Amino acid sequence: MKVRMWDLKLGAEEMKEVEDVVKSNFLGEGPKTRQFEEEIARLCGVKHCVSVTGGGGVALFIAMKAVGVGEGDEVVMPVYQHVSLANSAILCGAKQIFVDCYAENGNIIVDDVEKAITEKTTAIAIVHNNGRYANTDKILKIAGEHHIPVIEDACQALASRHGIRHIGSEGTVGCLSFHPTKLITAGQGGAVITNDDGVYESVCRLKDYGRFGRGKIPELPDHYTSWGLNFRFSDLQAAVGLAQLKKIDQRARRAKQMYRRYAAELGGERFITMAEDEVPWVADMSAVNPALWKSRLAELGVASALPYKPLHFQPIFRTDQVFENAIKWSERSVWLPMHPYLTDEEQGYVIESVKKVSQLI
Question: β-pairing, 333-336 with 283-286?
């Protein structure tokens, strides 16, 4: 048996939504996009949702610009992350100030955030690693004392909650991803969510050449009042996203179920406990020498993936500063298949394969 790490299957629901858009002859950003944004905003419990092309990285860049990050500024952020957050700071002309993560879950160390703040700090950016809550309440308290906005990278946390709040909805601005590997997809694209009217207007202008042409201010279409580029979504993307949204509750339940099964059959100590309302993006299993694990699992037909390298190991962000926890976190886990289409039989085979590899390593 061969088991893929990720899988994507679009069905009749997606085809029907896309067909409606094609028949309308309106393929750009229009009514389907507005509907998609409204439903995402409702899901997340926020006032505003703005979709963007590209993905979560574009959402993070626009969010950073919208809260005022600019040339010479500093943004405090975790060293363990996908590169898109750090790249967003570079695009803004700012410097990323890395903070280590907790060795047990990969999220940013709260106490170290305050130590990293200087007079140049313009924003704090946090990542909810694999759908796990990154102590936003404590971060917000620190940020409030310094009058600094908080950007939440919730690209791995769609449908995850902390109490009654959707993760990513508590900071100044949150960012989501609809990449094909995420809980739901729009093919690509992302979204910025916020309750701040000023941030919302800035995001809208940044994604549409500086215009605010969403019916909120009566401007001429070619009346440019600020900087912006074309980061608009499309109704074709929104059509796929709307069909996918109808499946999100079932997919969230399934993700939790698969994660619990892995933990139950492979040993609970290998898997971090997820809070009841947190939805895992991947099954990140503790494993010594993950590269060897990946190779051995591949020999048995099971695809897997390795965690990100801490960014201070990447050439563009190379530094002599030591982030011990991030190193430990990235070197002791391997990601197992856990996509919406993984069958019980396939997961059972993955579990059997992991047990076999355990005896060989």
Answer: antiparallel
